[in-house]
Amino acid sequence: MLEKHSCAKHAHIKRMLENRQYFVPAYYQQVFCPFTRSTSRSESFNSNFKDYVLRKDTIETFIRQYELFQESVIHIENKDRFLSNEKVPIMWGYQQFERHAAEIYTRAIYTKFLTEMMNATAFGVREIEKDKKYELKRNFEYENLEFDREIFTVHVDRAAEQFDCECGKFDRDGILCCHILRLFTQFDYLKIPERYIVARWTREFREIQLRKHKIDLLGAQSED
Ligand SMILES: [Zn+2]
Containing H/E element for 189? Predict the structure, then answer.
């Protein structure tokens, strides 16, 4: 790549390329790029993505194809989505907001949500400032840790039902992190607040969008 872009002699650029795994994830931390950030997956992500996008594509096509690609990634991970949509989702625990999640989310997202629910039980809560600031400390070393660190601070506005966790998972993946879910348990939440329901991850919206994408794609092909 350095030779292709005539940068082989630039020591700084060479070093940046070598260290890209350290700063690229940090740079994109707040960017919505669901479930595709692990290094092991990035290779397949790149090769798969090439199937969806051509060099001559316009930005508009690029974005549309990217959305299709996301759909497909989640499909591959959860091949039984259409089948399982008809079944009653399996509850992991007995909390009201979990039932709410089972009702609204697609099976794929609900499965990821359940993992967060389970991980949430590994955390203890320390109140720093009532209804404003909480510290979540991991007390159990579970498998497949998404974050190495043990302590996370969550800023809260109880009246507005706003929760900002420094892990930034919601901004990236569009689902709540285990730290915020742990606080939902703490506060006896019955439902997931509206502001934390990303429409594209809901059953209802997803089916409508998939239909729309197919029509858009067929329309675009027929024009060519
Ligand atoms: Zn978090």
Answer: none
Domain residues for the domain of 168 are: 89-139+149-201
Which tokens belong to 180? 């915020």
| pLDDT per residue as tens digits for the range 149-182 | 999 999 999 999 999 999 999 999 999 999 999 9
Report the side by side order of strands in the sheet with 162-165. Answer: 123-129, 133-138, 151-157, 162-165
Instruction: Determine the distance separating the centroid of ligand 1 and the alpha carbon of 85, expressed in angstroms.
Output: 28
Q: How far is the CA of 152 from the centre of ligand 1 (A)?
A: 7
Ligand 1 centroid–CA 49 distance in Å is 28
**Is 153 domain-assigned?**
yes
* Cβ-based neighbours of 124, under 8 Å, separated by 6 or more: 136, 137, 139
Q: How does pLDDT run across 134-154, given as a tens digit for each residue?
A: 999 999 989 889 998 999 999
Enter the tokens of residue 62. Answer: 């690029």
Give domain status of residue 20, yes or no: no
Distance 167 CA to ligand 1 centre (A): 4
